[in-house]
# Entry
Amino acid sequence: DIVMTQSPDSLAVSLGERATINCKSSQTVLYSSNNKNFLAWYQQKPGQPPKLLIYWASTRESGVPDRFSGSGSGTDFTLTISSLQAEDVAVYYCQQYYSTLHSFGQGTKLEIK
Amino acid sequence: EVLLVESGGGLVQPGGSLRLSCAASGFTLSSSTMYWVRQAPGKGLEWIAYIRGSDSRTFYADSVRGRFTISKDNAKNSQYLQMNSLTDEDTAVYYCATEGDWSYLRYWGQGTLVTVSS
# Structure
């Protein structure tokens, strides 16, 4: 099974500053035949279901603000919020869908400093 | 508009069974892969099962394999999760979800709470 590990577990960033969340997979999620990374990012606010932000590691979902971006390849990935807004307070999860047994990271709680 | 509505959650005793339902609208379930993801109180997301749209093949996380069964009824545009031999570790909000053009989860229901307690 592929294990997804996020860092840090929690993060406090000032409004307008950059927030960076990392995700590492225990094996590659890059499919060589199409050169795509099978990695997604979700945002979850209290009392709400998760919301898809990023898929294929770097493709922003429709309607997601462009301050959110995803990068990385193979086993190491990053979610970046370029200028933190108050509404970005949430827990963020990465997920691999490379293997038939999908898996999520443990989550990163993002707060305002 | 895609809409997923879960039902069937509630309080059940350890060792008991429960069947969750997910009613789908706005798309054709028969050609879509459907998922169940759960979240224990104060914890992270855990993918537990999915049923593939192309061939109805099923996949389970180790934590539920042999106890839970995922199924769907294309005529009713609904999917189900039969949960047996429940323990307190199965206490969670259970979300129904479906994918975009691949296996990332674009659409989610609001969830249904399952509490396993005596």
User: Anything to note?
Assistant: The radius of gyration of chain B is 13 Å. Chain B has a mean pLDDT of 95.
